[in-house]
Amino acid sequence: MNPIIQYLQKFHPISEESHLEILSISKLRRIRAGECYVKAGEIPVHMFTLISGIVRAYVRNDKGKEFNRKIFTGPAVAGSLTALIKQEPSVYALEALTDCDIYCTDYQKFIELSNKNLEVKELYIKMLETFFMEYSQRQIELLTLTATERYLKLKAEISHIEDLIPQYQIAACLGITPVQLSRIRKKIRTLNIL
């Protein structure tokens, strides 16, 4: 089964005919590490399904400091959903941290397809519900978990993250400085938690 379809089936089952319709408006791209496939200020036209690799969504303030909103690992929909839905400039940039395989789906054609295909519409609704619940959970974690707990959770999700991306990227994702991350890692080693 095609990887994009296999991923989408997790949200809602769809027929082979619907699979083919989605594939007809999607294109597989290989994104190299360091490449930004959505730049802040651009209006996105594609929905991106990350099949493999790691991507970060980040914002840069007026002083040039970057803040990671999220790190995506494949498979996942990795993009600025608000900008896509509202057709407005993206606040976030999306950068491949490792080489990635990404399906680019024409968003307008996907919406048109969902308007005439009930299966695709149900799939889209289930996707939006899932994204909303994930976003809500992340907000709760940022409010209730300590930096150490957030780091341990990230390590549980991506056990080899230190081998994939620089420490400053990990720290930015956790909302802490690299120095704080270094202290957390030292404390964890001392306590033999990992």
UniProtKB/TrEMBL annotation:
It comes from the Bacteria. Residues 10-131 form the Cyclic nucleotide-binding domain. InterPro entries: cNMP-bd_dom, cNMP-bd_dom_sf, RmlC-like_jellyroll. It holds the Pfam family cNMP_binding. CDD domains: CAP_ED (cd00038). Signal peptide: none annotated. SUPFAM superfamilies: cAMP-binding domain-like. This is Crp/Fnr family transcriptional regulator. It comes from Neotamlana sargassicola.
